[in-house]
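Q: My labmate handed me this sequence with no annotations at all. I'd like to see what the chain might look like in three dimensions before we decide whether it's worth expressing. Could you predict it?
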Amino acid sequence: MIPDEVYVEAVKQVGTYRLSLTFSDGKETVIDFEGFLKASLNPHISKYLDTARFQEYSVVDGDLQWNDYDLCFPIDDLYENRHIERDKSDAA
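A: Here is what I predict for the chain of 92 residues:
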């Protein structure tokens, strides 16, 4: 369960589509976004398979986002790494 008032404090890219997130309560997690991006049928999401575009993430007011919230995730999902990492065999 996510603590109240938790936000993303820092992000570091650790792989092509992998980001290490540090939260305000000190929790750190690595999320692999590749499966999520490959599984998406929505071109507004799958366009982030372009590695240059994916690398343009930022943290704004504690939220991880891309291109002025064109792509973002609920803080609960990031904190618990829920609904983001997918089995790569599912994306085939």
